[in-house]
Amino acid sequence: MQTFVFVACTPGPSIREAIVRDAQLSAFQLELIREKRRGRRPGWAKLKSAVLGIDGAVNLEWDPSVATLECRVITKAGSDPAPILADLVGYLFERFPERIQTVSILPRP
Fold first, then answer.
1. CATH number at residue 68
2. CB neighbours (10 Å) of residue 57?
3. HSE on the CB side for 5, CA within 13 Å?
4. Can you tell me the distance from the alpha carbon of 36 to that of 15, in angstroms, rounded to the nearest whole number?
5. What is the DSSP letter of 87?
6. Share of the chain above pLDDT 70, in %
7. 53-80, pLDDT tens digit by residue?
8. Is 59 exposed, middle or buried (CB count within 10 Å of its CB: 0-12, 13-18, 19+)?
9. Domain limits for position 101
């Protein structure tokens, strides 16, 4: 299953790069798996849950032209995306409250 999370932000530096550099990421039960082209556009990063038993991964891309963080949450068939979605959205609101304008979550089976 795929779930898309679009986070419209105020203009400014890349939220994706801020997530990649954030030393507090593990406090929100998320960990960086890998990233591509740090500091270059387009770049991407991949996160996963740090909790054993929570399946899924989150692919992150930052679109600077519209200041939007595009997140694609991917889980295996039959796996519930809610736990990793909750950790991701909770993290974003805790760490970037002044930047977030809108969060849209779109499930795609």
1. 3.30.160
2. 14
3. 23
4. 15
5. H
6. 94
7. 888 999 999 999 999 999 999 998 888 9
8. middle
9. 2-108
